[in-house]
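Re: the request from the purification team.
They wanted to know what the chain is likely to look like in 3D before they choose a buffer screen. I agreed to run a prediction and write the result into the notebook, where they can find it.
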Amino acid sequence: MAIHFYRNDLPEGLSLGKRVAVDTETLGLSLVRDRLCLVQLSAGDGDAHIVQLDRSSYDCPRLKALLADQTVEKILHFARFDMAMIERDLGVMMSPVFCTKIASKLARTYTDRHGLKDVTREIAGVELSKQQQSSDWGADELSEAQLKYAADDVLYLHQVRDGLITMLERDGRLEMARACFAFLPTRARLDLAGWPETDIFAHS
């Protein structure tokens, strides 16, 4: 495993293929208050690419181009949040996406534990550490522990995706999952527009 760290943008000429795992680190979980700090990527080859963003400009044309590329599937866990953050700060709505949290809820109906740590343990056989989850992602210099945490959140998403697809296909739920993924850009924009907790499909 190798962790590649970049400031502000991806390097020229980097190719991550047609399926890339994506995650973000932010100053907090508020779409109003908190800023996007890092974007992590993996092509599923055991390497992680981490971009520390310039929050004064978010000038990262190569990263934005990759995230906007309609020919590249983006794999995320709880994609709704990352999509909203990236839309707000980078001006890009990612599509197409595969959300492993939604897929887990549709496939793993025998449990209510759908966090990345639980899904990765079951499907990839890897125990993720969440010790750095609440650390300061806005720091100018990130620790090795922070970088490893950020990398781990994307390194196993390809394997998790493939395992969940097998389960969804077995139970005839893959098309339902893909329909949910297709709605995610709208769900993220509802969050940004002020409907984060409202179920607009509910009767009341």
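For the purification team: The CA atoms of residues 76 and 99 lie 5 Å apart.
Please add any questions underneath this entry.
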